Amino acid sequence: MITVHLKYEIDADKLEDFEEYGRRWVGLVNRFGGTHHGYFLPSEGDSDIAYALFSFPSLAAYEQYRADSMRDPECQAAFELARTTRCIKRYERRFLRPLDGLSQP
């Protein structure tokens, strides 16, 4: 299993746009065979940092999702929402391997 950790620098004045972007991607990742663990939005502390976590059974499955998402109209609409609203200033992507007592290396 591979878990993707995304750290977003967002425009705090466009939080509603970012929330809509996140709602779309939760469903899309799940539709493409992943498990979305949710978006984590600013509350106390930094007002412009948000996170997301989602997992795929393997790096190959994640790479297939990435390729398929480039051709999917709903994914393209979500990308376009972020581009037109400019709710995301930048993001960082990390790949993690969960250690939960159940996963094998």
Automatic annotation (TrEMBL):
Coiled coil: none
Gene3D superfamilies per the UniProt record, alphabetical: 3.30.70.100
Pfam families assigned to the protein according to its UniProt record, in alphabetical order: NIPSNAP
Start and end residues of each NIPSNAP domain: 7-99
Superkingdom classification of source: Bacteria
SUPFAM superfamilies the record matches: Dimeric alpha+beta barrel
Name of the featured protein: NIPSNAP family protein
Protein's organism: Streptomyces phaeoluteigriseus
